[in-house]
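Below is one such protein, fold included:
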Amino acid sequence: MPWQQLKVRVPEARAALVEELLSELGAVSVTLQDGEDQPVFQIDPGTTPIWRNTEVVGLFEHDVPIHAIVTELRARAHLNATDEIVTEEVADTDWERVCMQDFKPMRFGERVWICPSWETPPEPSAVNIMLDPGLAFGTGTHPTTALCLEWLDRQDLIGKTVIDYGCGSGVLAIAAALLGAARVIAIDNDPQAIIASESNRELNQITPGQLSVHLPGVEGHPQADVLVANILSGPLEQLTPIIAALVKPGGKLILSGVLSQQTQSLVDSYQEFFTMLVPVTREEWVRVEGVRR
């Protein structure tokens, strides 16, 4: 089956926002490239594209209503009518070949690596998350995912219960499981995310008993020692009482998917339930931390 590809050129400062929106609108992969079509499929944590005009490329399934996505993207990214958005079909075999060439292992913190399944992990004894482009909404390249992975890398999760709320590809849940969490609960309201997380769980040889995947509203979850939610600021604020109820007293909260200008509003929303710590910023994105009262 062919894929549908959407390209939009934006100033460097707006590339991260468009990248996040394309992911939220259902892109199975988002890449950045310069105006001369030199592809950049991987951004190392802590860096940013160097091009003044960055082309953001989203890849969608063949049956996705691409014109509706274009309309939504124009509205939410505040694109002008003159901002060109190009859509086209891409052959399946061509995309797989390009991804295999350009998607390389990435390191986060001291212990965690994300590796495509066709690559040999650079450090076999490290915590190696096997994750391929395709059924994944997050592969670690976005600053918000990197901020969460680096935080998890520094924690002692042995024997802990971890909840990944808004799990997407399951990368954070898988990281927690491989870092020693006794029980990990991955939650997402998108059935495609459930499929992706379960597929990636199997790829990493983690049992459903250690990492279970659920739609929201399933009863009987234990309260978490650690809850991580890498979504967007608006949903995080709306979910405040739900997320707070899932964290045990003294438990840790990690929120990301938050732009710097949204930080204070989000902190204010959670202060009733959590002692909030100093946020950490990378580029224009923020990781918010708290401890349950």
Notes: The first strand starts at residue 3 and ends at 11. The chain has a mean pLDDT of 86.
